[in-house]
């Protein structure tokens, strides 16, 4: 089968590799849709492939023997083969899987935090290929309702769950003011999540013209261009000098984390969903209003089939339409080119739908 493989730091190529066979608890999915994500860029450019097994020990049964790292963790498809012990799925089911998988048994999993599993769960790899394997399938996979498109379902597996969680985990109340720093795909999902949960004023911070437009479409009332105005000062003036109830950091940089902590009101919440690289050090200004009675909430990506079902239900019944995120469509064979597009933010790209 064709799969997009990382063969060297920063380099991907299409290669022919064997179709995986499912081990106990696993399923193999025939991909109908994959996509490139910001986290793929970290796996491609920043995280050495040698670190994948130390990072995810369960990859030891899968990675050796392959010519490199199979790329892609967001995928939708049809169940192709079912491993021993899997009870909820059979071949032919249309499904999607959380991009982070949980074992269902460790402390984190039994408290519902499947995305930060310590019992053998891992990030998915290989959704930019014709088939991909999902561990602990009964825990991490959901059937996709007929009325939900592949493009919507794939968002539920990662960026929608993450963006919405920025708002949920901040415990945003109806009418709260929210500022969201950066309107890339995940930041835009946070904007849509704040609107869906009943935010009052939503202020987005973004400089790319296409992202400014998308931000308004997804619910931002005001977009501040940081190349024109100083965001924290502007947010203070928009909130009568108080600062926002919730400030979301959605890019993963010291500068935006700091700006978010300057923009939040006393007693407010800084909600961080950015990925800060592999060895981050993060500091926060202690003289910012947020220093008083502040809350800082860090979120990776909530996962598991129940989370997926919730996301799919908001799409189905809650009239949340995130489809404008798909700005480009390509064939699987063009995946290396999709990475170039994504890395250079070419042509206003947000998400690229990749079909076999
Ligand atoms: Zn992702
Ligand atoms: Zn676990």
Characteristics of this structure?
356 residues, alpha/beta, six-stranded parallel beta sheet, 12 helices, binds zinc ion
Describe this structure in words.
The strands form three sheets. Strands 3, 5, 6, 7, 8, 15 and 16 form a seven-stranded mixed beta sheet that branches. The protein has a six-stranded parallel beta sheet with strand order 11-10-9-12-13-14, with helices on both faces. Helix 8 links the parallel strand 10 (202-205) and strand 11 (222-224). The longest helix is centred in the C-terminal third of the chain and has 13 residues, at 305-317. It has twelve helices and 16 strands. The termini are close together. The mean pLDDT is 95. With 356 residues, the chain is of the alpha/beta class. The structure holds zinc ion (ZN) (2 copies). The site of one zinc ion has 9 residues, from helix 3. One zinc ion is lined by residues 102-103, 105-106, 108-109, 117, 119, 121.
Short description:
The protein has 356 residues and is α/β, with parallel strands linked by helices. The protein has helices at 38-46, 52-55, 107-110, 137-140, 150-156, 159-169, 185-196, 209-217, 231-238, 254-263, 305-317, 335-343; strands at 2-8, 11-16, 27-35, 69-70, 75-82, 94-97, 131-134, 141-143, 178-181, 202-205, 222-224, 244-249, 264-272, 295-298, 326-331, 351-355.
Layout: helices, strands, pairs:
Layout: E1 2-8, E2 11-16, E3 27-35, H1 38-46, H2 52-55, E4 69-70, E5 75-82, E6 94-97, H3 107-110, E7 131-134, H4 137-140, E8 141-143, H5 150-156, H6 159-169, E9 178-181, H7 185-196, E10 202-205, H8 209-217, E11 222-224, H9 231-238, E12 244-249, H10 254-263, E13 264-272, E14 295-298, H11 305-317, E15 326-331, H12 335-343, E16 351-355
Parallel strand pairs: 9-10, 9-12, 10-11, 12-13, 13-14, 15-16
Antiparallel strand pairs: 1-2, 1-4, 3-5, 3-7, 3-16, 5-6, 6-8
Helix pairs in contact: 6-7, 9-10
The chain binds zinc ion (2 copies).
